[in-house]
Design goal:
Strand order of the largest sheet: 3-2-1-4-5
CATH superfamily of the largest domain: Ribonuclease H-like superfamily/Ribonuclease H
Largest sheet: 5 strands, mixed
CATH class of the largest domain: Alpha Beta
Structural class: alpha/beta
Shape: elongated
Oligomer: single chain
Strand content: 15-25%
CATH architecture of the largest domain: 2-Layer Sandwich
Length: about 220
């Protein structure tokens, strides 16, 4: 089951105020394990970054002015996420910005039904607790020391580990079935049979064992 961990950084909080995306990061996972496939880009938002956003991610107007526009990467981005479930922390924020960028270009919006919001998962699992990405990393003992600023790929990497913990999928599911002479191990990719070797003692060995037991018991109790 292939899914995509996704995160964005923006010029500000609300698309209603004209804010745009400045970074998109995507990491593919297959059965909860990161693959080597990723999508990442910085974007020219064609507007200034707010002071609040600059403090969060640190991307300056001068740096972003040299980057590609969303229209330059939209096809590659769409191909990367096609037919995959999206895993996003606080999905309403990222989706509002992504769908705004897609709408500007007359492209189809991302269906929210195809998204898993890890913030909602966390709130359901830990009601009343702090459920920011940093708080969840602390709860699950995930090293987030690289998160000096909010950058898309670092946040995606951390979220992939948080997602595994939230869904209880630390290892592939194992089904153990014990038969007379074998044990079966099943996971999502393969099924392996292990055969037990049954060693039976000879008649002579049984006699010697009984003799040993009698001698041992007599010595200890009489």
């Amino acid at each position: 089951m292939k899914e995509v961990i996704l995160d964005t950084e923006t010029t500000g909080l609300d698309v209603k105020d004209g804010h745009r995306i400045v970074e998109i990061g995507c990491l593919e996972i297959d059965n909860y394990v990161l693959t080597s496939k990723k999508f990442h880009c910085y974007l020219n938002p064609e507007r200034k970054v707010s002071e609040q956003a600059l403090k969060v991610h640190g991307y300056t107007d001068a740096f972003l002015a040299t980057q590609k526009k969303f229209s330059d990467v939209v096809d590659e981005f769409s191909d990367f996420i096609k037919d995959k479930k999206l895993i996003i922390h606080n999905a309403n924020f990222d989706l509002s910005h992504l769908n705004n960028e897609l709408a500007i270009l007359g492209k189809n919006k991302i269906n929210s039904q195809n998204v898993i919001d890890t913030l909602e998962l966390a709130r359901s699992k830990f009601p009343g607790a702090q459920n920011s990405l940093d708080a969840l990393c602390k709860r699950f003992k995930i090293d987030n020391s690289k998160r000096v600023k909010h950058t898309a790929l670092v946040d995606c990497e951390l979220l992939s580990k948080v997602y595994v913990n939230l869904t209880g999928q630390k290892e592939p599911t194992l089904n153990l079935k014990i038969g007379e002479n074998n044990i079966e191990r099943e996971d999502n990719k393969k099924k392996i049979q292990y055969y037990n070797m049954v060693i039976k003692p000879t008649d002579e060995e049984v006699k010697l064992h009984k003799k040993f037991l009698k001698t041992k018991l007599k010595k200890n109790f009489f």
